[in-house]
Amino acid sequence: MSGQKREKDLNIFEKLYIPEIAKGMALTLRNMFRPNVTLQYPEERFEPSASYRGRPVLVQENNGIERCVACGLCSRVCPALAIEVQASETELEKERYPVKFEINMLRCIFCGFCEEVCPEEAIVMSKDYELVFKNRNDAIFGKEKLLVPVEKLKDRLEFLRKFK
Amino acid sequence: MNIWEIIIISLIKILIVVVLLLLSVAYMVYFERKISAWVQNRVGPNRVGWLGLLQPFADVFKLLLKEDIVPDAANKPLHTLAPFIALFVSFATYAVIPIGPPIELFGYKINLVVADVNIGVLYVFALTSLGVYGITFAGWSSGSKYSLLGGIRSSAQMISYEVSMGFSIAGVLLMSQSLSPMKIVESQYGWMWNAIIQPIGFITFVVSAFAETNRLPFDLPEAEPELVGGYHTEYSSFKFAGFFLAEYANMIIACGMIVTLYLGGWQVPYIDKLGLSITLTTIIQIAAFLVKMGALLFFFIWVRWSIPRFRYDQLMNLGWKVMFPLALANLIWVAVLIMIFNL
User: What range defines the domain where residue A142 resides?
Assistant: First the structure.
C-alpha cells in the first residue's frame, strides 16, 4: 500500500481506471450473448468419452459368465482396499471363478488401478457416474450389480486395447 | 376534494406502490440471478414456473419456513428491531418519487406520487441516512465480530458517501430551485436533463448511490470472503429476508432517485410536439419512467457482475479525495452556468 516500489507506475489515463472498467463491462456484456454451456441435468445427460473413469464393473461374456478368474490382483492393488474377491473352482475352461466379488463404492477412489492390473480385461471402468445409495450396506456392490454385458463396454475395451 | 377523498386516494396509491415495489424487489432478485447467469454463460433459475418466473416466490416461501435463530450473545430487542428499521426506511422513501405527470381520473386531479411534499428530496436523504441505523444495530446487536465489522464499515462508508451525494444534489437543486421531486422533474423539460447539463454531478451521484446501497464494487459491509455475511451474518429466516428485501428495495429507490433527479423523471423529449392525445402521452411518460428505471437497474446488476470489490482504503480515498472534490466542482460548474445563462 505505501512505501513499496511499484513495478510500473501508471499514467494519469490509467489511474482513472475508467477505460479499464469500460473494457471489463464490455466483456461481461459480450458474454451475455454467448451460448451457454449448461446441461439441463435430469433431461440432458453428460455422455462421457471412452477415457472416462466411472464406476468399475465386471465384464460379462455373451454366455452370461464373467471373465474374471479371481486372481485377486485387483484386490491387492486397490489403494483404498475397496475390493474383496473370494475364489472357487469351476468346470469351465478358466478353472477359477469368483464366488464373491464385492466393491465398496464408499471406498473406491476411481483410480482405475484394478483395470490396469487385470490380466483378463475382466474389470473395467464404465461410463456410469450416477452413484446413489441410501445407506452404507447398499454401497457395497456385489456381483449382481457389477456384472455388465460386454457389448455395453465395447468403447472402454477398445480404448484399453489402444492405450493400455 | 374533502378529507376522506384525499385519504382514500392516498391509501390506494400507497397500496399500489407497496405491491409494485414488493413485486419488483422479488423480480430484481430473479433478474440478478438471471443476468449473473448470462454473464457467466449459464442458464440461471428455470425450474419453478415458466422460465423460472415463480422462483422469487419459492425463495420467499423457503425463507418463511426456516427456523429463526437468535444468537445467545445477541441483544435481542435491537437484533429484532434492526431489520424492521432497514425495511421501513427503504419502503418509506418511495413515497415521494413521482412516476408520471398529474392525471385526471374520475374527475379528480391525481398526482402520480404518493406524497407530493415540497421537501421530498430532503425527506429521502433524511430517511436513507436513518437506514444506516438498521445496519449498525444489526452489526452491533448480533454479538459477532463479523457482524460488528460489517456494521462499522457500513456506517463509515455510508457517512462518507452521503457527503458527495449531498453535494451532487445541491447542483440539481440549484437548477430546479425546489426540493420537490415533481418540480425537479418538471424543470428538466425537453433535453434539459440534469445528466446532460451536469455530467460530473451525475457520475458522482451514481457512484455514491452504488456506495449507499452497498452494491458491488462497494459492498464492503457484506464482503463475503472477509466477513462471512457482514452485518446479517447472524440473521436467519424472515429477519434475513427483511434485510434482503431492504437491500433490493434500496437499489430500486436509488434508481428511482437517479431517474428523477438526473434523467428527467417521466419526461420524454419533444413528446408534446407529436400531437398525441393526453391519455396516450401520459401512458408513454409513465412507460418512459419505468424504462429508464429498468435500464438503470440492469446497469446496477451488470456492474455487480463485472467489477471486483474495492479495498477499504481505496473506498475511503475514492470517497473523500475524488468524489467529494468532484461533487464540489460540479456545484461550482452549475453555479457558473446559472450565472452565465441566467437559467
Answer: 56-163
Mean pLDDT of B203-220: 84
Does A110 reside within a domain? Answer: yes
Contact assignment for B307 to A1 by CB distance below 8 Å: no
Question: Which residues are bridge partners to A104 per DSSP?
Answer: A140
Q: Is B35 close to A32, i.e. CB distance below 8 A?
A: yes
Query: What is the count of structural domains for chain A?
Result: 1
Considering only CB atoms, which chain B residues are within 8 Å of A35?
A: 41
Contacts of residue A36 in chain B, CB cutoff 8 Å? 37-38, 41-43
Determine, yes or no, domain membership for A1.
no
Give pLDDT tens digits for B269-323.
777 777 777 778 888 888 888 898 899 999 988 888 888 888 888 888 888 888 8
Omega before residue B217 within 30° of 0, cis: yes
| Per-residue pLDDT band at A85 (split at 50, 70, 90) | very high
Per the DSSP assignment, residues forming a β-bridge with A125 are A56
A/B interface, count of CB pairs below 8 Å = 36
Is B299 in CB contact (< 8 Å) with chain A? Answer: no
**Closest Cα in chain A to B41:** A36
End-to-end CA distance of chain A: 54
pLDDT tier, A86 (very low <50, low <70, confident <90, very high otherwise): very high
- Asked if residue A111 is part of any domain, the answer here is yes
| For range A35-59, the mean pLDDT | 87
C-alpha–C-alpha distance, residues B294 and B288, integer Å: 10
User: Does the beta-carbon distance from A24 to B306 stay under 8 Å?
Assistant: yes
Task: Give domain status of residue A76, yes or no.
Answer: yes
Question: What is the rounded distance in angstroms from the CA atom of residue B328 to the CA atom of residue A113?
Answer: 71
The residues spanned by each domain of chain B are 61-341
Which letter does DSSP use for residue A66 in this model? B
Task: Please count the residues of chain A.
Answer: 164
ipTM at complex level: 0.70
Q: Does B23 touch chain A (CB under 8 A)?
A: no
Q: Which of B125, B121, B129 is nearest to B260 (CA)?
A: B121
Judge contact between B91 and B127, C-beta under 8 A.
no
Q: Which of A21, A24, A32 sits opposite B38 (nearest CB)?
A: A32
- Residue among B133, B150, B100 at smallest CA distance from B279: B100
Mean pLDDT across the stretch B119-127? 85
Structure confidence at residue B283 (pLDDT): 83
Model pLDDT, residue B254: 87
According to the model, what pLDDT value does residue B107 have? 67
**Is B35 part of the contact surface with chain A (CB cutoff 8 Å)?**
yes
Q: Do A24 and B37 touch (CB under 8 A)?
A: no
pLDDT > 80? residue A115: yes
Max Cα distance, chain B (Å):
67
Report the pLDDT value the prediction gives residue B124, as an integer from 0 to 100: 85
**Which of A1, A29, A37 faces B41 most closely, judged by CB atoms?**
A37
Q: Say which CATH number the domain at A139 has.
A: 3.30.70.3270
